[in-house]
Amino acid sequence: RPKRIPFEERAQLAQNACGKRLFELMARKRSNLAVAADVGTVQEVLRIAEAAGPHIAVLKTHVDIFDEWNSGIAAQLRKLAEEHDFMIFEDRKFADIGNTVVSQYGGGIYRIADWSDMTNAHLVPGTGIIDGLKTVGGPKGCGLLLLAEMSSKGALATGAYTEKVAEAAVANQDFVMGFICQTPAKWSTQCPPGLIHMTPGVQLASGGDALGQQYNTPEHVIGSGGSDVIIVGRGIIKAQDPGAAAAEYKEAGWAAYQLALQS
Amino acid sequence: RPKRIPFEERAQLAQNACGKRLFELMARKRSNLAVAADVGTVQEVLRIAEAAGPHIAVLKTHVDIFDEWNSGIAAQLRKLAEEHDFMIFEDRKFADIGNTVVSQYGGGIYRIADWSDMTNAHLVPGTGIIDGLKTVGGPKGCGLLLLAEMSSKGALATGAYTEKVAEAAVANQDFVMGFICQTPAKWSTQCPPGLIHMTPGVQLASGGDALGQQYNTPEHVIGSGGSDVIIVGRGIIKAQDPGAAAAEYKEAGWAAYQLALQS
Ligand SMILES: O=c1cc(CO)n([C@@H]2O[C@H](COP(=O)(O)O)[C@@H](O)[C@H]2O)c(=O)[nH]1
Ligand SMILES: O=c1cc(CO)n([C@@H]2O[C@H](COP(=O)(O)O)[C@@H](O)[C@H]2O)c(=O)[nH]1
């Protein structure tokens, strides 16, 4: 396994402005934690952003599960992102042909490209999806994460599929900032170090839920798994004190990163 | 190639209420046409529904590209569906873990399960996505289409991936009503005839767009391709007279189906 490179250095190697900003932010804030704010109301998401804000590098949203949305709410989230120094990742999992994702990313009620720093996409439709999203997000300085692997049981993003995703990322580094993945140590070691790896399915104890989710620990994911960022949803948002839980996951994620750097 | 079975008979074989209704509707209305209402305003989608309504079996929406949405608009669309006898398919392409799609399908601003007859999903996350969507759509009598193949250039849904999708559909026929696919003749002949095949990437002349879309003709798709339903977007919605274009595609689709039955 090649030696791990610190985030500060990888910021210099990122070919995408958004990826560069995220590496810099993580190094500055000493946090490689993303929180998945999977709550049903705008009030709750603002509360999570406020409580977890000081500890996170990224706030991950599913805007389409909130009870309301408008540009004022987007502005409130952006303000919290400035105040607490985090970035916003809309986890849209775009998965359509290029022509369709152009409208879905830039238009509609959500206007995702207007307020999110980054979003993600499945490569199932082929590389036209990257071309389409790039026409919208490129000029705005946004970044794209490709789903190379998934956390859930029986996921089909494996083997040759994952290899194709890696290839597409390498070929589109002006817009693709990295991956959503599980075990990049297995397939990403030849990828340029400017690409970032973010991993969901993380809790302090391994396990799963009733609908196929599978959990690994921060140590496992960042250590032997070779990832850079942990994405934590229910481990934080269902905790009695989400702010304290975020602080705990931040420490665990950062300790795992420090250890990986040394080994 | 096994002999094609008429829609009337397949309605009896469908194990999902929504699939059964669609087969019956197509036989009754003599239409195997779905229109993709990919427009940016609610006004335009209502106009398309009104003009194409008499000719279509299915109105396919991307609700997240419309400029506004509320339950009143949903009610207007449902009223047009009753009047003109068509079903509504929200082309959401769900692609997340089971726990997340539960909220995305049932909740948020769109409440997709409340007004759509059917929706679709990618199997990338594994079968937990079917379990999750079923908890919401099952009790409402909705149906799910799985994306087995895609129309776009370089799509990764091929070979072993497509086989896995077919297996998952067969194992979940209480909720999965069929497939979004390209060439079911290649892989679906062993699937139960109660499952339906719907194919996008259709125009009267073959070709493509600048972002990877690829077009085949109705004859090709329904004939040698072995599909049941043609999905047509720009071929209809960009026509000077979308109503007349829908009538034309309806004739072409139905003629191809009649020919397939005879051969
Ligand atoms: O493979 C994936 C990819 C993603 C993100 O792109 N996710 C998302 O992470 C979060 C995990 O939440 P949890 O920690 O509560 O399981 C959810 O928002 C889920 O949609 C996963 O859970 N698995
Ligand atoms: O593989 C697919 C799957 C789908 C539907 O699930 N689609 C959709 O069909 C429509 C094709 O439109 P067009 O006829 O204008 O190309 C678009 O809404 C697109 O998102 C495709 O174009 N290709």
Provide structural commentary.
2 copies of one chain form a homodimer. Chain A has about 260 residues and is an alpha/beta fold. Helices cover about 40% and strands about 15% of the residues of chain A. Chain A contains 11 helices and 10 strands. In chain A, the strands form 2 sheets. The first copy, chain A, has an 8-stranded parallel barrel, surrounded by 7 helices. A two-stranded antiparallel sheet of chain A has the order 8-9. In chain A, helix 8 (about 160-170) links the parallel strand 5 and strand 6 (about 175-180). The model of chain A has no long low-confidence stretch (mean pLDDT about 100). Chains A and B meet through helix 5 and helix 7 of A and helix 5 and helix 7 of B. Bound molecules: 6-(hydroxymethyl)uridine 5'-(dihydrogen phosphate) (2 copies). One 6-(hydroxymethyl)uridine 5'-(dihydrogen phosphate) (JW5) sits at the interface of chains A and B. One 6-(hydroxymethyl)uridine 5'-(dihydrogen phosphate) (JW5) sits at the interface of chains B and A.
